[in-house]
Amino acid sequence: MSDLPTVPAAPAEAAMPRRAGGRVRVTGTDRIFLTLMVAVPTIMVVCWVWLPAIASVVLSFARWSGVGGLDTIQWIGTENYKNVFTNYPPFAPALRHNLVWLVFLFVLPTLFGMLLAVLLDRELRGTRFYQTAMFLPVVLSLALIGFIWQLIYSRDQGLLNAVLHTQIDWYGDSRWNLWAVLVAAGWKHAGYIMLLYLAGLKGVDPSLREAAAVDGASPAKTFFSVVFPVMRPINIIIIVVTVIESLRAFDIVWVINKGTNGLELISTLVTSNVVGEASRIGFGSALATIMLLISLVFITIFLSTVMRGERR
Amino acid sequence: MSRPRSESEYLASLVPPSLAAGVSRRGFLKGTLGAGAAVSLSSLLAACGGGDNKGGSSGSGNKEVSFGSNQSDAVPKKAYADMLAASGLTVKVNTVDHNTFQENINNYLQGNPDDVFTWFAGYRMRFFAAQGLVGDVSDVYGGLSGFSDAFKQASTGDDGKQYFVPLTTYPWAIFYRKSVWEKNGYQPPKTLDELVTLAKQMQKDGLVPIAFADKDGWPAMGTFDQLNLRINGYQFHVDLMAGKKAWDSAEVKKVFDTWRGLLPYHQPDALGRTWQEAAQSLLKKQSGMYLLGMFVGQQFPKGKEQEDLDFFAFPEIDSNIGTGAIEAPIDGFMMRADPKNEDGAKQLLKYLGTAKAENIALKADPTVIGASSEADTASYTGLQQKAVEFIGSAESIAQFLDRDTRPDFAATVMLPGIQTFLKKPDDVDGLTKSLESQKKSIFTS
């Protein structure tokens, strides 16, 4: 979300010097054009990102059913937060599941995706085929992936139970379903990371590797001591992508059972409290604010790392 | 919730509601990191827009009545179209997907709702009536005949006025296949002990005694309701739903304890199964009975299979309480607080409250019965006729847990609460304590 403002604004900045060519002469049409270029994205970001985010934080201190005017809002201080932490049994599992999601994506699919990228970069035979096969899940929506894996996980007709000769309800049994969903989500994530990393590897100057080879470095040593450090920007992007993916995990769980019974995530709790007839707007906003704060921690770390890197 | 509207109407409504309607909330959720932020925006905008919209309802020369329908499946949709066509009025129908309609009801009612729309009796009706979001239809109701006192009570708001016109209803009971029971010589149990004996016999005969599913979180609420009505009676149930009785009381603990005693006879792994799958096991003669609403019949092919379906009331647990209380949710219609065409809306409601309208609607779904006693029962199946008798002889009628209590309590406390119980049935004390403490936090407003 943080990259929203910079993307549309960039062309406006870039247009200035090229057009003026040293002498800054901005005609009337340019002025209007530039104003629009800056104003429209700014308004959009303010309306759709900042105002709702601030409203969410403000409403998290209120009790409001969403019915009736704004005058029906009761201000109740931090009671919603107190309730979230002490009086809402699904919250603790949801937080835990989000963390498990994050750690799992890092440990398995992300590293696996990077490994695949390194292998594919070595121009094996049929590399295009592997590339396509691994990337295929990425173009599917997570909701659809949930359905596809249903065929494998189904209790009575599923492939997995047929192979293992078990009768486990992979999506329904809360002992297994989080891991079952993580495998399905990881299937997609690995392909995504592979593609990002492969693109990065292709951009590494081949002379670096040649130099390393001349110096007698083994392929493993070349990768860890030469290629990996050069890939720093890509590595940061991969960390950010993985964090974002695990925090916004929502759709796959929602299509399975709306985030109940062992698949609670903070995002699904927000939805089931705010959307629908329930309309615990204040309580749901408190959950959303907690999610925002967690995201901010990661965004801050990311931004400070990037900025420090640029200053160097 | 993009609803087809004429352009002039679209322009007349201010930007915020259309903005809120145009942006799919779920789409927003998927795409944004600060998910909650986006949702709050659309809620806020819709809420603000609501006030603006209510002013523009002066179109009196308009003969058309708009009708908001949640009947999105093909068969009932057609039946509703036929029913509305026979009203003699010009009715513009806006059909919205069933679940979407329910999820968006708050925004819908505060935005630009249709003059007449489908809804449910019970707390969910009274809540909107108390908020002034739906119109008083007492004068229409006074002119209707054929509704029993129980229906009138279910259509009445907290202020004693009627806000709801019933159309159909269906009972919750224990359903079974006659052919299976005849073959094995089973008799409908009259008491809880008989039910347990029967269940044990079924296990010996290789059947799952009680089909069970709670993937969607609500079907198991029906089991709680039945047990509570039998153990503690109707009045306690109503008070409990209204937040007046404690969830950590001995009465409620007894309900969960009794349920735990019955769990070994329920189909295992219920949390991963939908009610449709559980109904299929009844259809395939793998399970002996199923506690569900009469809509279980939708999973049975019309004709011979549906004719094979029968039911009995949940057996007696306490002889002082008896079996007089049943559960039969009522579906029907409400009117917008300030309809664009009030005369037309009331005329339409008057028509919808007649047996004529019910007869057309009933053709689509043989698993419901007409709410009016004047509905034509000649074409009813055996099951429907039994349901008429069952509901007619009931002493008191509850709606359903999620229709009798606050929606926020049902959805965010009871739904996960009952699922937790099914996973860990032994910790009743911890569960009821948590339910009560969450109830207190919700029922304060």
Verbal overview:
The complex is a heterodimer of chains A (312) and B (445). Residues 1-21 of chain A have low confidence and may be disordered. Chain A is an all-alpha fold and 312 residues long. Chain A has helices spanning 6-20, 28-59, 79-86, 91-121, 127-139, 142-153, 159-164, 177-202, 206-214, 219-230, 232-247, 251-257, 266-274, 281-311; strands spanning 62-63, 74-75. The longest helix of chain A is centred in the N-terminal third of the chain and has 32 residues, at 28-59. Chain A folds into 2 domains: 1-54, no CATH class; 84-311, MetI-like fold. By secondary structure, chain B is α/β, with parallel strands linked by helices. Chain B folds into 3 domains: 11-40, no CATH class; 62-169 and 329-398, D-Maltodextrin-Binding Protein, domain 2; 172-327 and 406-442, Periplasmic binding protein-like II (D-Maltodextrin-Binding Protein, domain 2). Chain B is built from 22 helices and 12 strands. Chain B has helices at 7-12, 15-22, 25-31, 35-54, 74-85, 98-103, 105-110, 123-130, 138-142, 149-154, 178-184, 192-204, 219-241, 250-262, 275-283, 304-307, 342-352, 355-362, 382-392, 401-404, 407-423, 428-442, and strands spanning 65-69, 91-95, 116-120, 165-169, 172-177, 208-211, 287-293, 309-312, 325-327, 330-335, 369-370, 396-398. Chain B has a 6-stranded mixed sheet with strand order 2-1-3-10-4-11. A 4-stranded mixed sheet of chain B has the order 6-7-5-8. Chain B has a two-stranded parallel sheet with strand order 9-12. In chain B, α2 packs antiparallel against α4 (35-54). The two termini of chain B are 28 Å apart. The model of chain B is unreliable at 1-61 (pLDDT under 50). At the A-B interface, α2, α13 and α14 of A face α3, α4, α7, α21 and α22 of B.
